[in-house]
Amino acid sequence: MFREGLLVVVSGPSGTGKGTLLSNIKEREKNIRFSVSATTRSPRSGEIDGVNYFFKTHEEFDSMIKNNELVEWVKYCDNFYGTPKKCIEDTIKSGFDCLLEIEVEGALNIKKIYPDCVSIFILPPSFEELRRRIEARGTEKAEVIDKRMDKAIKEMNYVDRYDYVVVNDRIEEAVSSISSILTSEKLKFERNINILESIGIENRSFA
Ligand code: ADP
Ligand code: 5GP
User: Fold this and answer.
1) pLDDT (tens digit, 9 = 90+) per residue, 87-102?
2) 15 and which of 78, 97, 133, 198 could share a cystine (Cβ 3.0–4.6 Å)?
3) Which atom of ligand 2 is nearest to the CA of 74?
4) Is 172:122 a contact under the CB 8 Å cutoff?
5) Is 203 left (phi over 0), alpha (psi -120 to 50) or beta?
6) CA distances from 139 to 51, 134, 142, 169 (A)
7) What is the CA radius of gyration of the chain?
8) How many CB atoms lie under 10 A from the CB of residue 104?
């Protein structure tokens, strides 16, 4: 029985470990595809164009906005980030789950456009641990780290706008929590009406 994929939106302050958790999820969940955002930020060492992001100049990013190619976009810590529209729709319609790892403002916009999406907020175990992780990653200069910490504190105020909260303390536990969320969401009654009908269970309240 064909079922559209889930649209899953994951947010959390920079350095919380979203990338780390999601690369584990990628290994574990074979039905999931990750949306690749466009950004004007420079690639970090090891990042590949078209895999981690589509790295764009400001002019290229502007023309994506003008051509209506982005479903949402924001300015975050002096750089622009946006989600390509086509990729989300193609992925879900072909039955794969589509995961967006985006910041709060973009996530709230996605929730307005796709009210059926599932939203997950990843929290660090503490602010001290968050700073330690950003510093340990070693990809940002001191002033950028301060900016990202400020932004992190502001972003955490929006945690109550999300469906689920996962604290990334032990990696394996957090990964397993995310997998459980995906499984439970797929088992929800309202996502299984086609299947119930195909079994022959009739109930006018399905409509
Ligand atoms: P984000 O994608 O949220 O910006 P990253 O996945 O890049 O964060 O993780 C930031 C740093 O924290 C990385 O050095 C990563 O190895 C480390 N990290 C991630 N999760 C944990 C964890 N549960 N415990 C300790 N360190 C972690
Ligand atoms: P980073 O520079 O650390 O890769 O990303 C900075 C922030 O931008 C992160 O919170 C990340 O989730 C967010 N982000 C990445 N892509 C997008 C996007 O397409 N749209 C929005 N709104 N945020 C994004």
Assistant:
1) 899 999 999 999 999 9
2) 133
3) 22
4) no
5) beta
6) 18, 8, 10, 21
7) 18
8) 24
Task: Please tell me the distance from the alpha carbon of residue 12 to that of residue 33, in angstroms, as a whole number.
Answer: 19
pTM above 0.85, yes or no: yes
Mutate to test the pocket of ligand 1, among 20, 53, 139 (most ligand atoms within 8 A of CB): 20
Please identify, by atom number, the ligand 2 atom nearest to the C-alpha of residue 102. 12
Q: For domain 7-34+97-206, which CATH number applies: 3.40.50.300, 2.40.50.870, 3.10.20.30, 3.90.190.20?
A: 3.40.50.300
- What's the token pair of residue 188? 């929800």
From residue 137, how far is each of 102, 118, 140 by CA, in Å?
19, 28, 8
Distance CA 96, CA 7 (A): 9
Pocket of ligand 2 from Cβ distances under 6 Å: 14, 37, 41, 72, 74, 76, 81-83, 101-103, 105-106
The domain locations on the chain are 7-34+97-206
CA dihedral 90→95→97→103, nearest 10 degrees, is: 30
Model confidence over 136-173: pLDDT tens digits? 888 788 888 888 888 888 999 999 999 999 999 999 99
